[in-house]
Design a protein that fits this description.
Structural class: mainly alpha
Number of strands: 0
Low-confidence stretches: 1-12, 19-24
Distance between the termini: 55 Å
Largest sheet: none
Mean pLDDT: 79
CATH superfamily: Tetratricopeptide repeat domain
Strand content: under 5%
Order of helices and strands: HHHHHHHH
CATH class: Mainly Alpha
Shape: globular
CATH topology: Serine Threonine Protein Phosphatase 5, Tetratricopeptide repeat
Oligomer: single chain
CATH architecture: Alpha Horseshoe
């Protein structure tokens, strides 16, 4: 127990059996498991686990400030789908992430990447320009945002 907070034991990954959890810290464990599976090119299993993580997070109220989770589930699900060559499904997840946490830079960037991957530079451009903080130094200095903006510039040519 660290700082008065207890976390459940690690959830083992058993082939074909997604972990069963019922607490908020377990969402993070599901995310780590899904990300690990996606990096091992087991996209179908990663998708199934992310569906469970998303369902658990959707039972929680949207955060009123920074997310309680290190990575919002819809955002991570979008990244996994994008890495798996499913940009349309990824864009849906990034849109859901942005409904829960409007103007989150990483979700905006993911949405722009997904739009570019599905051949929609206008939508990608809209996502890179939609944040009210898009002119701030912090946003401009995100390497990933510069990357997305470069994609958009290339799409114009």
């Amino acid at each position: 127990m660290a700082h008065g907070v207890s976390f459940p034991e690690a959830v083992p990954v058993t082939a074909g059996v997604p972990p069963v959890v019922d607490t908020a810290p377990s969402i993070g464990e599901l995310e780590v498991t899904a990300l690990t599976l996606s990096l091992r090119n087991d996209l179908s299993q990663a998708i199934e686990i992310m569906k469970k993580a998303v369902a658990l997070e959707e039972q929680l109220a949207p955060p009123s400030g920074p997310p309680a989770l290190i990575k919002p589930t819809h955002e991570l699900f979008g990244e996994i789908l994008l890495r798996g060559g499913k940009p349309a499904e990824a864009l849906e997840q990034f849109n859901k992430a942005l409904l829960r946490q409007p103007n989150r830079a990483r979700s905006l960037l993911g949405a722009a990447r997904a739009a570019m991957a599905k051949g929609d530079p206008q939508t990608a451009r809209a996502f890179t320009q939609s944040s009210p903080n898009s002119g701030s130094k912090l946003i401009k200095d995100l390497a990933e945002l510069r990357e997305a903006q470069d994609f958009v510039k290339q799409a114009k040519n």
